[in-house]
């Protein structure tokens, strides 16, 4: 196998893994930019992955067409629904955002596995999705050596992801909506004074994170695992959070960081292709994304770009 | 008496109690939707915990690690830090205890205590790493402890796989008998339930937690640094060093829990595919207990019994035992967003207020 093709395939696998992370990271940016920290992205992703698998199973059992697309929509709805709980608790009732996030993770994982066992006669996973997404090659572009293989022979979700990175950037930095959302996260008191509803924008931020995290979870069941069990997500929501911090709360930065973590995951799958990897234990490869995150955080110079009011419930009395 | 009245004042006791009721109620609704009988299920749960001496002993065994991780989370929280990493520190403690328990050959009166201490220190250092990153490098401890959880999980597997593996098994070899922390006489009373010294040490730690935090100068500095770092700095307290210290002490608790789990319960360390979950339950326990040592003890008894009893639910009433994660999750949800609980309580308060008025 020649090196160009191999690298192309490695890049392609990287994209498969990073697509889901990018969706979730984008969602996280919207919520954190509005001033609500969401540690529950892992749970929201789990909810999306679960909903996608179950919906796809049901549509396929009913003989309906377009299963993966219906599954995708189900996942978005399910993620949004759970993030509504998060928003009610943190925005309306001013609960501690980190605690609610952690709770969401415990709660959703429990609930989804419980439902899977109830729906599938006590089994630990859903049925295999027969008609999951398959790769789509873009005509002409996919014929380019290396880049064609790497970028233009991908799952539909990856193309949606390309589009969403650009849309997110545009929405956050080029629209009045984005400006208001960010102002609520930086200085809610000031935003409130000029008549921007802090509650409304924070709800929108949190709900967007639910929708996008649900989409991210669905991407995993519909392209990678083809079913849902309690190990389907295992930590990828947290990696997405790391990608947000690493990418400094910016859509393009976070997408780049997520791609980097995707590469770390892809390398794990491709490791046996390289001779030197025989000396690296599997566990070290598994650890790699987390160690890299810590190192990057520890040595990244300058102050972080975290939204100033993220993590603080808004109290108009303190204005 | 004073302490008790402080802990059990109306507000702080009422909200957790109502939250527990709401959580159980919510679990019942989910069971009804799933087509199960919640009354049978909860009866099965109670029967599993209190049905016979063995199960009761095992339920106590399940409570023990939660005392440690609950204290761990609460200690950090009292010092103004969010330690999401009790999970990783617990695993670090397991690993430290395993290494000493397997690799060293010592008389029992040194071996077991040494293994416990090394496990605790492993947990402490693992947490102190996050404290260092926060104090010196400005890395948010929520992110770093989450990352350290995963690194601990794979790191522990690496150590077990390379150093301690029992050939052909997904676990380490057994620890030496001299490192065992079992309490054989109590086990014998409770039909060989895996009772160990960790339960007593946990109770001691509840007291230690209280004394260190509220009765020592060090504890005062920790709380001051956590409450108001600016004021603490002005008062001449080294805030950075206190962050690292607070995390170290917090991690010691989780490390102790992990050490006793290896030395007292399993006698080997398994290769983990997923985190054991005690750290995350520790967050629940500490929150339910209002970050208060006695409250944490009560919280860990509740969650430990629920978790252990859930096995009975799935066995006798056929309910998937994940239902208990839903109950625990919703209990913390209600405690954290106590505004919702107050909303439920409001009608009762109104009624009482009106009655009082009528009486006047």
UniProtKB/TrEMBL annotation, chain A:
The keyword Transmembrane applies. The keyword Isomerase does not apply. It is found in: Cell membrane. Signal peptide: none annotated. Keywords: Cell membrane, Membrane, Transmembrane, Transmembrane helix. One of its GO terms (molecular function) is transmembrane transporter activity. Its main location: membrane. It is a multi-pass membrane protein. The chain crosses the membrane at residues 12-31, 43-63, 69-91, 98-116, 154-173, 203-225, 237-263, 284-302. It holds the Pfam family BPD_transp_2. GO terms for cellular component: plasma membrane. This is Sugar ABC transporter permease. It comes from Paenibacillus beijingensis. The lineage of its organism: Bacteria, Bacillati, Bacillota, Bacilli, Bacillales.
TrEMBL record, chain B:
The chain crosses the membrane at residues 12-39, 59-77, 84-102, 108-130, 142-160, 195-213, 243-260, 266-287, 294-311, 323-345. Signal peptide: none annotated. Pfam families: BPD_transp_2. Keywords: Cell membrane, Membrane, Transmembrane, Transmembrane helix. GO terms for cellular component: plasma membrane. The keyword NAD does not apply. CDD domains: TM_PBP1_transp_TpRbsC_like (cd06580). GO terms for molecular function: transmembrane transporter activity. It is a multi-pass membrane protein. It comes from the Bacteria. InterPro entries: ABC_transp_permease. It is found in: Cell membrane. This is Branched-chain amino acid ABC transporter permease. It comes from Paenibacillus beijingensis.
């Amino acid at each position: 196998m020649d090196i160009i093709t191999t690298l192309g395939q490695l890049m392609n696998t990287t994209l498969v893994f990073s697509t889901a992370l990018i969706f979730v990271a984008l969602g996280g940016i919207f919520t954190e930019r509005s001033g609500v920290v969401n540690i529950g992205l892992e749970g929201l992703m789990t909810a999306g992955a679960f909903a996608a698998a179950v919906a796809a199973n049901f549509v396929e059992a009913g003989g309906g067409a377009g299963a993966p697309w219906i599954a995708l929509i189900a996942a978005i709805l399910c993620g949004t629904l759970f993030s509504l709980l998060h928003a009610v608790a943190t925005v309306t009732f001013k609960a501690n955002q980190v605690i609610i996030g952690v709770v969401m993770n415990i709660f959703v994982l429990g609930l989804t596995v419980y439902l899977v066992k109830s729906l599938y006669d006590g089994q630990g996973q859903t049925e295999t999705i027969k008609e999951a997404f398959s790769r789509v090659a873009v005509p002409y572009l996919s014929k380019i050596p290396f880049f064609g293989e790497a970028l233009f022979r991908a799952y539909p979700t990856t193309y949606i992801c390309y589009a969403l990175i650009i849309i997110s950037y545009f929405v956050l930095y080029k629209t009045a909506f984005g400006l208001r959302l960010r102002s609520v996260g930086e200085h809610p008191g000031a935003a409130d004074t000029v008549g921007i509803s802090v509650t409304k924008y924070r709800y929108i931020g949190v709900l967007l994170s639910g929708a996008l995290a649900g989409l991210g979870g669905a991407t995993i069941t519909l392209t990678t695992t083809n079913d849902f069990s309690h190990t389907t997500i295992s930590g990828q929501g947290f990696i997405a959070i790391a990608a947000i911090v690493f990418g400094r709360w910016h859509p393009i930065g976070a997408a780049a960081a997520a791609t980097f973590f995707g590469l770390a995951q892809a390398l794990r799958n491709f490791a046996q292709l390289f001779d030197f990897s025989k000396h690296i234990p599997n566990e070290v490869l598994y650890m790699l994304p987390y160690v890299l995150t810590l190192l990057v955080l520890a040595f990244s110079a300058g102050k972080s770009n975290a939204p100033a009011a993220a993590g603080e419930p808004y109290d108009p009395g303190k204005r | 008496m004073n302490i008790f009245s402080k802990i059990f004042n109306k507000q702080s006791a009422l909200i957790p109690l109502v939250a527990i009721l709401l959580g159980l109620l919510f679990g019942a609704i989910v069971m009804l939707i799933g087509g199960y009988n919640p009354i049978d299920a909860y009866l099965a749960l109670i029967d599993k915990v209190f049905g016979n001496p063995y199960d009761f002993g095992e339920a106590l065994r399940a409570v023990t690690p939660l005392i440690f991780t609950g204290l761990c989370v609460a200690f950090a929280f009292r010092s103004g830090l969010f330690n999401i990493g009790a999970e990783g520190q617990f695993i670090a403690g397991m690993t430290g205890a395993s290494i000493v328990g397997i690799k060293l050959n010592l008389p029992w009166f040194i071996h077991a205590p040494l293994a416990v201490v090394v496990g605790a220190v492993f947990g402490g250092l693992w947490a102190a790493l996050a404290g260092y990153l926060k104090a010196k490098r400005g890395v948010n401890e929520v992110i770093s402890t989450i990352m350290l959880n995963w690194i601990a999980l794979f790191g522990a597997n690496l150590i077990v796989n390379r150093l301690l593996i029992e050939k052909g098994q997904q676990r380490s070899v057994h620890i030496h008998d001299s490192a065992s922390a079992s309490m054989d006489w109590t086990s014998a009373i409770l039909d060989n339930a895996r009772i160990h010294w960790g339960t007593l040490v946990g109770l001691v730690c509840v007291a230690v937690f209280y004394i260190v935090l509220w009765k020592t100068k060090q504890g005062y500095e920790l709380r001051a640094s956590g409450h108001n770092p600016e004021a603490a700095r002005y008062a001449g307290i080294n805030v950075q060093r206190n962050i690292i210290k607070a995390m170290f002490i917090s991690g010691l608790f989780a490390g102790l829990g992990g050490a006793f789990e290896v030395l007292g319960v399993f006698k080997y360390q398994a290769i983990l595919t997923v985190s054991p979950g005690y750290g995350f339950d520790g967050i629940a326990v500490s929150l339910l207990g209002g970050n208060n040592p006695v409250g944490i003890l009560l919280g860990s008894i509740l969650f430990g019994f629920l978790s252990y009893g859930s096995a009975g639910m799935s066995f006798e009433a056929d309910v998937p035992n994940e239902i208990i994660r839903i109950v625990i999750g919703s209990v913390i949800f209600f405690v954290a967003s106590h505004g919702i609980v107050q909303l439920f309580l409001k009608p009762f308060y109104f009624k009482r207020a009106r009655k009082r008025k009528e009486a006047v």
